[in-house]
Amino acid sequence: xxxxxxxxxxxxxxxxxxxxxxxxxxxxxxxxxxxxxxxxxxxxxxxxxxxxxxxxxxxxxxxxxxxxxxxxxxxxxxxxxxxxxxxxxxxxxxxxxxxxxxxxxxxxxxxxxxxxxxxxxxxxxxxxxxxxxxxxxxxxxxxxxxxxxxxxxxxxxxxxxxxxxxxxxxxxxxxxxxxxxxxxxxxxxxxxxxxxxxxxxxxxxxxxxxxxxxxxxxxxxxxxxxxxxxxxxxxxxxxxxxxxxxxxxxxxxxxxxxxxxxxxxxxxxxxxxxxxxxxxxxxxxxxxxxxxxxxxxxxxxxxxxxxxxxxxxxxxxxxxxxxxxxxxxxxxxxxxxxxxxxxxxxxxxxxxxxxxxxxxxxxxxxxxxxxxxxxxxxxxxxxxxxxxxxxxxxxxxxxxxxxxxxxxxxxxxxxxxxxxxxxxxxx
Length: 427
Hints:
By secondary structure, the protein is α/β, with parallel strands linked by helices.
């Protein structure tokens, strides 16, 4: 009995220590609480003082509910989610009074048409603000005067001009203004910006000095902006690592456009009107790891175009990106680190793919994802059987009549849809 009692007390002591450790961890790490109803805000199922992330999204909250519920119980909260509620507005100064430690506010799609000067007043610790998908017709000039924002999302807000409050928020590092109606930029005071998303704005053309005050930009997204020429303003951004110019109307891409971007790692020029490349286009971009030049109108590609890109890991050339007369094994000789190769819809290049041999597989030992769909292939290239790291292969909509012989790998994706396969191996 004595031994049993000792064991029991020991177990209880260990349990108490475990609970204490969990309590201390909850204090240091905090917890997320998402009420399932408005009533559970005032009658929480957890200790509100332990909550650091309060998720009130999708509760059909109105602005008046913020005044009548006990949101103030969660005064340790640093992150508040209000998305997908019909709030229409943020009551003046309320958030600062009830959640003084707030540093992140996410309020997508709350039907807010106006952000007034006092809505975020006294939230001196607020650094991250996301207000996407709100019909913001008015953003007052002093809307962020009390804040020190480093991240701001105002995408899908119907903005026609850049609000003064944004232009004056000099602490911004990340700014997302995509999917608005902006035609001009004024970023002269945002000299700390490192990431700028402007995709799907009708910019058409960008002023030569548009980014003079933003030398620290490392990421720039300009997808679908109606650009007809490579903006010369981009050439000044020597620290760029990610550049997206897809879905525009560019007709040229030259070494002069890219030579001042030696740190570029991701380049997307998909779906432009580029018809030719010179052999030195990428000669100054040896850090490039991801390149998407899909769906271009059939340009001829010099044999040495990819030679400088020995660090390239992903190459997407779907559609008519490579001319059939120049698409040869030689194009890929230096791409020994390639992990993903996308040649979908390359009808003219089917003969090249069919010629892949064991030597092609040996030159690309890390290839794990291969997309060669809709290329009128009748047989699978011999070289594929030697690709031992292949985990994803898309062979859809070819002309394969029998199940292809593939390397015995653990596939995460194997797509043979749309092939007239009549023979399937047994077992």
